[in-house]
Design a protein that fits this description.
Distance between the termini of chain A: 34 Å
Mean pLDDT of chain A: 87
Largest sheet of chain A: 7 strands, mixed
Structural class of chain A: mainly beta
Oligomer: heterodimer
Structural class of chain B: mainly beta
Shape of chain B: globular
Number of helices of chain A: 0
Mean pLDDT of chain B: 90
Order of helices and strands of chain A: EEEEEEEEEEE
Radius of gyration of chain B: 13 Å
Strand content of chain A: over 45%
Helix content of chain B: under 10%
Radius of gyration of chain A: 13 Å
Distance between the termini of chain B: 41 Å
Order of helices and strands of chain B: EEEEEEEEEEEE
Largest sheet of chain B: 6 strands, mixed
Low-confidence stretches of chain B: none
Number of strands of chain B: 12
Shape of chain A: globular
Helix content of chain A: under 10%
Chain lengths: ~110, ~110
Amino acid sequence: DTAVSQTPKYLVTQMGNDKSIKCEQNLGHDTMYWYKQDSKKFLKIMFSYNNKELIINETVPNRFSPKSPDKAHLNLHINSLELGDSAVYFCASSLDGHSMARTFGSGTRLTVV
Amino acid sequence: GNSVTQMEGPVTLSEEAFLTINCTYTATGYPSLFWYVQYPGEGLQLLLKATKADDKGSNKGFEATYRKETTSFHLEKGSVQVSDSAVYFCALMNNAGNMLTFGGGTRLMVKP
């Protein structure tokens, strides 16, 4: 069973569209994250939610909005997509906000054309 | 702020060769250090970790020692296999334990 699953795996869309990436974890973890991996393979934290509450919100455009309906899900909505949004987005979870280990999903490759 | 620097790849080795991937960090206080591995088409997996100076993390034949005096956490393996081909990320956790900072990743390619 996949511990952290995110869908879709690949997403190709046109500029200006609105899209969502879903993430679910079945580990019973309290904290979930979204990371962006750019073309140079750098991983940058975007958001962190602990038990449905936002605890980290790095400097990302307002077009990106995370939504956590429950602590097992953290979805990423992106409005008015731009070319520069093309990247691989990783969802992750940890036992709590202080846990040292992260469990990652397999990533969603977003391509904006 | 905290930062992690690791050697750029790709690193190409023959099977059974010795591997070193350098990682240095900048951080305040006493961070914890990690190596994550990303196999093709998969997410990141924790490979090993060290939580204090002079600790050695080890797993699957890989080792890394937390060197506070040189602010380094170099990854080593005595004899690599083709199945070790992946991207390796060095990372550090801040004192509060709620922020994980990654390096840029190093691609390892092992040829038979």
